[in-house]
Amino acid sequence: MTSVFIIFGNNMRLFYKSAIIVILSLCCIGSAAGHDIKNIKIVTPEWEDCTHKDGTGLFFEIVRNVYEPEGIRVEYEFVPWKRAVYIVEETKKADAYLSRMKDSDHLAPYYPLWVEYAAAVFRKDNITEWKGIATLSGKSAVWMRGYDYHTEKRIADVKLKRWDEIDEPKQAWGLIEKGRYDFYIDTLIDIEQYVRKNKVDMVETYRIETIWGEPSYMIFAKTLKSEKLIEIYNRRIIELFKSGELKKIFNKWNIRFDPEAWQK
Fold first, then answer.
1. Is 154 within 8 Å of 185 (Cβ atoms)?
2. How many structural domains does the chain have?
3. Engineered SS bond to 34: which of 43, 81, 95, 232, CB 3.0-4.6 Å?
4. Cα–Cα distance measured from residue 51 to residue 237, given in angstroms and rounded to the nearest whole number
């Protein structure tokens, strides 16, 4: 009988050791996959086709497809652009905002969220010939408050005569119509949406020209949590790209898809 209990005891110890190893392994796998992070909080303005208050839109759909399969809940709050920047970069009370060009001052993933095009709108009877970005030289321009195009080197190099900021696209179009400014500079997607919604005359009166296209990124708060979130993003966005799912999301929202941005 004694030998039976010894064998039984040894088997039980072996069972417990095996169970502990399995549990620890699962914990490590969960941690590596990002399962120790329960949520990601996004702050952003509301942008048509990109960030809707019902949680739909290009940006939200990409972010959900990146993080939800990893067990990370996506939360979002709508705030003005400058407020979003402040919350993430200064207070760190949110994890990320959507989206902006990457530079050394901002914490961003290796891969972009999308490619954002900047464009200029002008009256055909005011600017009769377009010669690329150099056409802006010596002219006046307006853009949305907080977009800070004056800090963009390519615009600084052409030396605008003057510039100003406005709070609503309608204001900008009014200033261009009245001839108070020569150009309205904004993202191409926002300009095209305004034209469609307001049936702006693009045949006789106005003209749109693309100035440049740049990858635009999720910008994260500088925290340890963000470093893990970025690791997950870089891995998952490429999985979505290679599977073709990323292109499908862009096509769904009728937004230009530039595969080169995820091929580098």
1. no
2. 3
3. 232
4. 18
